[in-house]
Amino acid sequence: MRIGELAARTGVSERSLRYYEQQGLLASDRTPGGHRDFPERAVDRVIRIQELYAAGLHSSKIARILPCMRDEDGGPSVRATPELVAELTTERDRIDRMINELLRSRGVLDEVIDAAAGSIGAERA
Questions:
Q1: Hey, which residues does 30 pair with through a beta bridge?
Q2: Contact indicator for 65, 52 with CB cutoff of 8 Å
Q3: Which pLDDT score is estimated for 72?
Q4: Is CATH 1.10.1660.10 what the domain over 1-75 is classified as, yes or no?
Q5: Average pLDDT over the chain, rounded to whole?
Q6: Is the pTM higher than 0.90?
Q7: How much is the pLDDT for 56?
Q8: Residues 47-82: pLDDT tens digits?
Q9: What is the CA radius of gyration of the chain?
Q10: Is residue 21 within 8 Å of 27, Cβ to Cβ?
Q11: What is the pLDDT of residue 55?
């Protein structure tokens, strides 16, 4: 499929897809006219890349992770090194800390909303 179709099917811009290819995250063949030709499995790969970006990982780490992940066409091509596993564990811990901070912030906001709602009810009485 051409880059425009891949962009439409994944919701990712053509510019981002070219960047993914440049970073080694995504591969395509070239038509005789020089156009990119992506395989069907590129859709799943782009979605996976987007999930990893959303997790806060940068492209160089994603490039190291992707070969260790199972794709729809089979198992991982390489095993993760202990160093990569340690780095990913650190990333997960960072995300856990962020989640806990957000939960605390939401709790404070809930208290403020409850107090504000209570004072509005008291004013009307």
A1: 36
A2: yes
A3: 61
A4: yes
A5: 89
A6: no
A7: 86
A8: 999 999 998 898 998 998 888 887 665 555 678 889
A9: 22
A10: yes
A11: 87
Buried b (16+ CB within 10 A) or exposed e, 27-62: ebeeeeeeebebeeebbebbebbeebbeeebebebb
Contact 84, 60 (CB under 8 A): no
Model confidence pLDDT, tens digit, residues 73-115: 555 567 888 998 998 899 899 999 999 999 999 999 999 999 9
**Going by DSSP bridges, is the β-strand pair 36-37/29-30 parallel, antiparallel, or unpaired?**
antiparallel
Q: Concatenate the DSSP letters of all residues of 44-106 into one string.
A: HHHHHHHHHHHTT--HHHHHHHGGGSPBTTBS-SSPPPHHHHHHHHHHHHHHHHHHHHHHHHH
DSSP state of 37: E
Query: d(Cα 48, Cα 12) in Å, to the nearest integer?
Result: 12
State the Cα–Cα distance between residues 90 and 39, nearest whole angstrom: 33
Q: Which residue has the tokens 């790969």?
A: 45
- The amino acid present at 86, given as its one-letter code, is A
